[in-house]
């Protein structure tokens, strides 16, 4: 369960997030939809503290993110150790996969449990193989990332994030860098994760992805929530003009009737 | 560190510094010329010639500068050339570093996109014209920073010829230390002088390359 | 019909006199051994020192960083020979009596930690930021990120350049002859003084150095190919 309240952030004079608020219920998938520069990636990166925000609150599973409240009442900002500890419960998959090239597929997936959680070799390996099987890449465990296709690498990246047993998974434009034929295999894995009840927040500018995967779509523009709702309503019955404009190109390409 | 000794020796050190500069300038000029010719030969001369020049380059670069200096020093009389030690030193420095110059220039030519020479050929230029009108200016622009770095290295390298008895800053400093038993004073002074020379050259190099590249946008 | 020439007849000719090299092979061998020993010890120390210096230069800002940068620039812009003379003649004056071998090792290390640190710094900075982000997103702490993600990749990227630096080190050991350390170059001087034949010994050592350099550069190419395959 994720709760974002009134989040604001600026990079210097450029305001990226303007009082953003939304909620993601347990086990549901939220998609942040919008153009490049709408602030959606920054919002996602705030959720695992890769970015710090200026004002507002984020709560994950009931506890505040990024600071602890001392008995005296003053909130204290987390240090590096506490940030790292929090990130272990929050998984992230990147647009460019970011696999470690000097490790095999298996070692990449084992890396988290083995080196961060301190588990022993045997159980880390077993977990990694189980996850690679789940994403359909068990036979590739001894290969190096450079020899895999984009879709395969992305699935390994998902397995690597899952190995930490996170309660939340963040997906940052995970299909944007893939050739169209390879998107399907990654989507299949994400649908499977939905079926298993994992809470997920995805960022994308691809409306197809949002339709496919989302329980709830949040359309963002210039750092604010413009409209939100279930995917069918968002895509076929937009209420705001700005969302309508965003969808226009999508509908024109797909031959559906233009929204009012 | 005794400053009075330094002040007394200043004129001598000044002359030695100028001598070092002279040796460096002569060697740099010769090295750049020989290296340039070598690079052009290896590019335009076809595969066998290119292979042979690469062998020559590797052979000389596999040997330390000091050993090469000794070799030249003893080889020239064998060949019947009885010249002053200083010229022997200059020859050694020039030939040795010409190999590096050739490598830098060859790399610079390789760095130019192949389509450039194709464009020249398409216009109807001969191989030679393509080389001089299209490729050479671009190669020189690319090669200038590493070449100036090499010049700084060559200034440092002149100290090696002091071992065969060429009088320049290092040898002069050595003699002064022998006479006055003040190693820190004079060797530190020499280090400072070399530093000013080399660092100055490197700074000039980066300044020059920035100005040269203002007209390009990469 | 060819009659075998006596060694004495060969000596007088203008032709290259092989007999000198054959007779002095013991000295040459000693020289090679010392050169390899010198390179090995100085190389190992420079490697460790260079790693420390490289990391220190990335981490330390402000005064310490400025001092380190000054040291690096000083070593890069001054001749090794003058530094060698300074240490060799200067240390006894302040009471430190180092054996010649030690002085030469000290000066070589002072110079080459700079090369090694520059190579390693380049290697560390070449690891893409996206990797480090991925490791952070997994929840790795900075120390672990360095140990598991940055250093292994920086190391394998640096090996070819490090071997290049090692070749330079082997060449720089020849300057030991300036302070009469009996390395390979000094051996040639000694032989030439003893046999009054100056050219042949130096050709012999030139060949020795060439062979060593060639072997090392072959090793470097081998590692470079391996590193490229792994990417």
What are the main properties of this structure?
heterotrimer; B: 218 residues; mainly alpha; MetI-like fold; 8 helices; 83% helix; flat; C: 231 residues; 10 helices; disordered N terminus
The profile of the biggest β sheet of chain B is: none
| Approximate shape of chain B | flat
CATH superfamily membership of chain B, which one? MetI-like
Number of domains of chain B: 1
C-alpha Rg of chain A, in Å? 19 Å
Name given to the CATH architecture of chain B: Orthogonal Bundle
Strand content of chain B: under 5%
Helix content of chain A: 25-40%
Mean pLDDT of chain B: 87
Order of helices and strands of chain B: HHHHHHHH
- Helix proportion of chain B: over 70%
Q: Roughly what is the average pLDDT of chain A, rounded to an integer?
A: 88
Separate helix tally of chain B: 8
**What is the CA-atom radius of gyration of chain B, in angstroms?**
21 Å
- The CATH class of chain B: Mainly Alpha
> How does the major sheet of chain A shape up?
6 strands, mixed
Provide a brief overview of the structure.
The complex is a heterotrimer of chains A (260), B (218) and C (231). Chain B is mainly alpha-helical and 218 residues long. Helix content of chain B is 83%, strand content 0%.
């Amino acid at each position: 369960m994720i709760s974002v309240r009134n989040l604001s952030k600026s990079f210097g004079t450029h305001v990226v997030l303007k009082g953003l608020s939304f909620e993601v219920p347990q086990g549901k998938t939220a998609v942040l939809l919008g153009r490049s520069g709408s602030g959606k990636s920054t919002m996602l990166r705030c959720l695992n503290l890769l970015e710090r925000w200026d004002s507002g609150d984020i709560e994950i599973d009931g506890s505040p993110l990024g600071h602890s409240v001392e008995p005296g009442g003053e909130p204290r900002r987390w240090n590096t150790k506490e940030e790292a500890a929090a990130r272990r419960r929050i998984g992230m998959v990147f647009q460019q996969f970011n696999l470690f090239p000097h490790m095999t597929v298996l070692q990449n997936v084992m890396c988290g449990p083995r080196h961060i959680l301190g588990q022993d070799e045997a159980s880390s390996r077993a977990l990694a193989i189980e996850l690679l099987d789940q994403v359909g890449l068990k036979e590739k465990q001894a290969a190096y990332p450079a020899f895999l296709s984009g879709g395969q690498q992305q699935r390994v990246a998902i397995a690597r994030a899952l190995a930490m047993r996170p309660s939340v998974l963040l997906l940052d434009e995970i299909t944007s860098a893939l050739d169209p034929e390879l998107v399907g295999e990654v989507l299949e894995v994400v649908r499977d994760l939905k079926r298993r009840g994992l809470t997920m927040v995805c960022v994308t500018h691809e409306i197809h992805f949002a339709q496919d995967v989302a329980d709830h779509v949040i359309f963002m523009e210039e750092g604010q929530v413009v409209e939100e709702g279930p995917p069918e309503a968002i895509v076929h019955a937009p209420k705001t003009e700005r969302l309508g404009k965003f969808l226009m190109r999508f509908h024109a390409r797909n031959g559906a009737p233009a929204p009012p | 560190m005794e400053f009075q000794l330094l002040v007394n020796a200043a004129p001598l050190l000044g002359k030695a510094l100028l001598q070092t500069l002279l040796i460096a300038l002569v060697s740099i000029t010769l090295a750049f010329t020989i290296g340039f010719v070598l690079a052009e030969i290896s590019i335009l001369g076809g595969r066998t010639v290119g292979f042979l020049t690469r062998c020559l380059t590797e052979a000389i670069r596999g040997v330390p500068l000091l050993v090469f200096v000794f070799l030249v020093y003893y080889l020239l009389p064998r060949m019947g050339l009885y010249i002053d030690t200083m010229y022997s030193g200059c020859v050694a420095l020039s030939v040795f570093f010409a190999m590096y110059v050739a490598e830098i220039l060859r790399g610079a030519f390789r760095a130019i996109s192949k389509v450039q020479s194709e464009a020249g050929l398409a216009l109807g230029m001969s191989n030679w014209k393509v080389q001089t009108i299209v490729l050479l200016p671009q190669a020189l622009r690319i090669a200038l920073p590493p070449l100036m770095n090499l010049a700084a290295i060559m200034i440092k390298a002149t100290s090696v010829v002091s071992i065969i008895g060429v009088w320049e800053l290092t040898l002069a400093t050595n003699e002064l230390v022998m006479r006055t038993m003040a190693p820190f004073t004079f060797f530190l002074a020499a280090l400072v002088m070399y530093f000013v020379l080399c660092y100055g050259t490197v700074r000039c190099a980066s300044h020059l390359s920035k100005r040269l590249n203002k007209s390009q946008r990469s | 019909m060819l009659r075998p020439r006596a060694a004495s007849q060969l000596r007088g000719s203008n032709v290259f006199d092989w007999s000198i090299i054959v007779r002095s092979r013991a000295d040459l061998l000693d020289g090679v051994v010392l050169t390899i020993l010198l390179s090995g010890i100085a190389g190992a120390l420079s490697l460790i020192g260079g790693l420390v210096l490289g990391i220190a230069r990335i981490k330390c800002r402000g005064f310490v960083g400025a001092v380190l940068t000054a040291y690096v620039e000083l070593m890069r812009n001054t001749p090794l020979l003058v530094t060698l003379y300074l240490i060799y003649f200067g240390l006894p004056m302040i009471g430190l009596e180092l054996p010649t071998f030690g002085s030469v090792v000290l000066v070589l290390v002072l110079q080459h930690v700079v090369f090694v640190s520059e190579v390693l710094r380049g290697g560390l900075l070449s690891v893409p930021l996206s990797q480090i982000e991925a490791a952070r997103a997994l929840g790795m702490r900075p120390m672990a990120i360095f140990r598991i993600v940055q250093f292994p990749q920086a190391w394998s990227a640096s090996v070819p350049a490090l071997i290049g630096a090692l070749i330079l080190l082997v060449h720089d050991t020849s300057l030991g002859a300036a302070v009469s350390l009996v390395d390979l170059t000094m051996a040639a001087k000694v032989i030439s003084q003893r046999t009054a034949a100056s050219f042949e010994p130096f050709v012999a050592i030139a060949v020795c150095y060439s062979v060593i350099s060639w072997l090392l550069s072959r090793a470097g190419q081998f590692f470079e190919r391996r590193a490229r395959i792994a990417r």
